[in-house]
């Protein structure tokens, strides 16, 4: 059980939590939500022991194994599969101990360690690790690549796989769906549903939360409020609670007004002074109810272009890819005014390649790109966050686009993205990933596009901003093409899907639920095929556990013979070195001079003795080796 009792937590002198309380029971799956900067990640660090409380008490089972998803990966020359397996420290320690026991020929300890490894399913660890990587979108060949070969987003996936690989009683995941595609989100969702420990999950993905968690812990006004049920249930409960709170607040304000009015009227009158003082004491005792803060800080829209064309954009007989490598081919795709298109497809199918080709960031390998006369693209992609000018303010970013626009008009617009005061006029160098994403979206919205092309726009955004983005897309009058793992965004902003599969682009006649069912059918077919292959393989080999026990017993019986062979090999190596030294001395012409006759005779005698010793040892080694091979053959036939 996790218990937070009247805890206070400060960061940089700013209170994140103040006298907050929360209880999480074992086995619960809890979604932790709250606006960016309210303390979600700090709470995770607190549970991991990386932060100290400023007040209150944290109670957590000291025996619990805690696994968490790191947000950064340092450069490493480890293979991806090895990096993931390193997450299971118990496994790695056992493997190390087994190697030491084997090297020391401690066969009893070796056999015991093998049993411990079998108890934690260690012999199948690499298979499990590869399954995790495949589920998160890594191809077969990629699991052998070095960590340094992957981009930042893919390294975060490696961190996620490493956290899932680690046996744990408490699993802490901070925005695990960032950098995942929709297929990987479906896989992760299924994996977490099977997880047996306690899960604490930070996520902006409403549908993901709805599917995975059974409680919501909301960071509100430096407090932690626990709601039963998934995210949609939280929304209903919170709306009801806020409505009751607002009603209570208004009722209390009426009572406060009545008291203050009574005091003003009768405080000076002797006959009413006592009652006035009583009213004042009532006012002092009254615990003031905070007004409901249900309004989102984000409210913006995409400025619409004055002109349009039909079609806005298209590709004809196009081959898309990099250099000579073609990733996607299409005979004809067209984007018309008002189109609402979502791209579906597995990782590597070419979704980002198609977007880059549409915006002309990537030249076509072959074919034609057709642009409407009045085409104005608003393009959002993760690399654009890195292209922001860190020394400039949000205000300056927009002023550079439209120098003649008044500063107040730009400030008003930025306010819809919750950039106020110094946040709007100061440098963005210390902006978080979420703040940079908001600014990049503001730049796109300011450009008056008639075609929005969005590549994973919800990464780094909190739930309130995701909701505001969904509303803004709904109100946008132009065309939209979007790639996103956020199902709520897709369900509420697109009207048709394009499926990228087998190197082609085709219209998908179905919903997201239909696409999910298609993926499940494909996985079931693959599972049946894998089971058939596994059954065939099992019919040809012994049961793995019995085979390991047999091999351990065999090593124990063969140990004395192997030890004798190794001892003879060491003696032979020692004699061979001595013989080489003698022969080197005999190769010196000076030894054959008259003055060195005695030395020559000594060296010749040594050569003869060492040669004979070499032959004797080799003969003994051959006999011992033959005996060892016969014994191995005899034991294997038993």
TrEMBL record:
Keywords: ATP-binding, Coiled coil, Nucleotide-binding, Repeat
MF terms in GO: ATP binding
InterPro entries to which the protein is assigned, alphabetical: AAA+_ATPase, ABC_tran_Xtn, ABC_transporter-like_ATP-bd, ABC_transporter-like_CS, ABCF, P-loop_NTPase
Domain of life of the organism encoding this protein: Bacteria
Pfam families, alphabetized: ABC_tran, ABC_tran_Xtn
SUPFAM superfamilies xref list: P-loop containing nucleoside triphosphate hydrolases (SSF52540)
Alphabetized PROSITE patterns for the sequence: ABC_TRANSPORTER_1, ABC_TRANSPORTER_2
Coiled coil location: 551-585
Domain ABC transporter span(s) in chain numbering: 2-246, 313-527
The keyword Nucleus is annotated on this UniProt entry: no
Keyword ATP-binding among record annotations: yes
Xref: PANTHER family: ATP-BINDING CASSETTE SUB-FAMILY F MEMBER 1 (PTHR19211:SF14), ATP-BINDING TRANSPORT PROTEIN-RELATED (PTHR19211)
Protein name, UniProt field: ABC transporter ATP-binding protein YheS
């Amino acid at each position: 059980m996790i218990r937070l009792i009247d805890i206070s937590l400060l960061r940089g002198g700013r209170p994140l939590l103040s006298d907050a309380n929360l209880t999480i029971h074992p086995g619960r799956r809890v979604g932790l939500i709250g606006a960016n900067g309210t303390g979600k990640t700090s709470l995770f660090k607190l549970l991991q022991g990386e932060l100290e409380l400023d007040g209150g008490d944290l109670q957590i089972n000291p025996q619990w194994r805690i696994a968490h998803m790191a947000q950064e990966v340092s450069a490493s020359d480890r293979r991806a599969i090895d990096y993931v397996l390193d997450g299971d420290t118990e496994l790695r320690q056992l493997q190390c101990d087994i190697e030491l026991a084997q090297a020391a020929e401690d066969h009893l300890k070796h056999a015991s360690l093998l049993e411990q490894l079998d108890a934690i399913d260690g012999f199948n660890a690499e298979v499990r690790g590869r399954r995790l990587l495949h589920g998160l979108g890594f191809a077969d060949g990629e699991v052998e690549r070095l960590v340094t070969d992957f981009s930042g987003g893919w390294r975060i996936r490696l961190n996620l796989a490493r956290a899932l690989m680690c046996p744990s009683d408490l699993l802490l995941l901070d925005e695990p769906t960032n950098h995942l595609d929709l297929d990987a989100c479906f896989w992760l969702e299924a994996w977490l549903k099977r997880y047996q420990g306690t899960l604490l999950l930070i996520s902006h993905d409403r549908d993901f939360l709805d599917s995975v968690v059974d409680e919501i812990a909301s960071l509100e006004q430096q407090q932690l409020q626990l709601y039963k049920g998934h995210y949609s249930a939280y929304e209903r409960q919170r709306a009801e609670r806020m409505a009751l709170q607002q009603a209570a607040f208004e009722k209390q304000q009426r009572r406060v007004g009545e008291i203050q009015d009574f005091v003003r009227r009768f405080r000076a009158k002797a006959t009413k002074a006592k009652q006035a003082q009583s009213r004042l004491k009532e006012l002092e005792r009254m615990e003031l109810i905070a007004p409901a803060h249900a309004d989102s800080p984000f409210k913006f829209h995409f400025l619409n272009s004055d002109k349009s064309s039909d079609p806005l954009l298209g590709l004809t007989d196009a081959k898309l890819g990099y250099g000579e490598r073609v990733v996607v081919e299409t005979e004809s795709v067209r984007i018309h005014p008002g189109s609402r298109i979502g791209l579906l497809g597995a990782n590597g199918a070419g979704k980002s390649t198609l977007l880059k080709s549409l915006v002309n960031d990537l030249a076509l390998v072959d074919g034609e790109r057709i642009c409407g006369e009045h085409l104005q693209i608003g393009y959002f992609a993760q690399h654009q966050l890195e292209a922001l000018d860190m020394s400039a303010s949000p205000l300056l970013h927009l002023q550079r686009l439209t120098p003649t626009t008044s500063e107040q008009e730009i400030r008003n617009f930025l306010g819809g993205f919750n950039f106020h005061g110094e946040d709007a006029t100061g440098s963005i160098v210390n902006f978080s990933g979420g703040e940079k994403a908001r600014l990049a979206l503001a730049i796109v919205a300011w450009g008056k596009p008639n075609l929005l092309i969005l590549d994973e726009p919800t990464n780094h955004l909190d739930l309130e901003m995701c909701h505001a983005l969904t509303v803004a897309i709904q109100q946008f009058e132009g065309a939209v093409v979007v790639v996103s793992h956020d199902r709520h965004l897709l369900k509420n902003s697109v009207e048709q899907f394009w499926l990228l599969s087998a190197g082609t682009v085709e219209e998908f006649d179905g919903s997201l639920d239909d696409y999910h069912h298609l993926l499940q059918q494909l996985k079931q077919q693959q599972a049946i095929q894998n089971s058939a292959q596994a059954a065939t393989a099992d019919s040809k080999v012994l049961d793995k556990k019995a085979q390991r026990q047999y091999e351990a017993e065999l090593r124990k019986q063969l140990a004395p013979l192997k030890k004798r062979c190794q001892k003879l090999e060491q003696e032979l190596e020692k004699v061979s070195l001595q013989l080489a030294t003698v022969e080197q001395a005999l190769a010196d012409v000076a030894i054959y001079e008259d003055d060195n006759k005695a030395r020559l005779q000594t060296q010749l005698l040594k050569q003869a003795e060492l040669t004979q010793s070499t032959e004797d040892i080799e003969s003994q080694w051959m006999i011992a080796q033959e005996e060892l091979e016969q014994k191995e053959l005899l034991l294997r036939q038993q």
